[in-house]
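Thread: quick sanity check before group meeting

JM: Hey all, I'm pulling together slides for Thursday and realized we never actually wrote out the predicted structure for the chain we discussed last week. Dropping the sequence here so it's in one place. If anyone has concerns about the input, flag it before I start.
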Amino acid sequence: MKKLLFIVSIIVAGSVTYGQEPVLESFAGTRVLSNHSIEMLPKRSLEFRVSHKFGDIAGDAGGINNFFGFDNLADVRIAFEYGILDNLDIGVGRNKGIGLISGVVDGYAKYRILQQKTTGMPVNLVFVSSLALPYKPAVSDSTSVASYPRFLNRLRFTNQLLVSRKFSDRFVLQANVGYNHRNYVDYLDANGLLFAGVSSRLRITKTFGLLVEYNHVLNRPEGVAANYQNPLSVGIEILTGGHSFILNFSNARALNENLFMPETTANWLDGQFRVGFSINRQFKL
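JM (edit): ok, ran it. Output follows.
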């Protein structure tokens, strides 16, 4: 009887331990498409990322004359990300930028507050804080958002909370809410913008999946609201042994949240969407 009780206790203990295991691989990388995902880099891991977006596929700026956008470059970003701890990431990047906001360096810190477990904790909760700095010379037009009377006028930052749940091996749903602040804007625009979004991943096979990402700006002033659109992206992910490749279609031209959240002006219905891709490679240091 004692031996039986001992064996049962081992099985129960093993079941409890197993039941509390973290749920892994909600997303294939630290981004869904352009915005952050809840995914974290393992401790002492370095990730190299290259992202690229072309011009409009259709509309006045697209079509065959610009080879459906491939003759134009909307934005490109090269970045390095590093896992300081299993629950803490940092990253730096350089963006071509869009319009007058060009030559942009960015950085972020990302902290995991909660991690989904097989039993008990039902969700992941992550906080991300990022900063962007356009470094090219200011323009001479004092009415332009790129005139930058002071250095601090260049800065823009975004803070957001991400919450997600992996419902199965095939389906993940993520929601985000955040605040974007630009230190210098047009006189009719608002410095601070609240936004909320939703993203999802549907895994078709072990190496192929579908991604959707949408963000909605909540408090754009009426005087300028008609000039902007909410960023919507859809994508396809292809996983290999060491890389993840994502092909995406988006009305957002920019690749960094400090740019595409407040600065998206292209309209899907007018054919103002573009193809883009991202590739990442992770190294263990």
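AS: nice. The mean pLDDT is 90. Residues 2-19 form the longest helix (18 residues).
JM: adding both to the slides.
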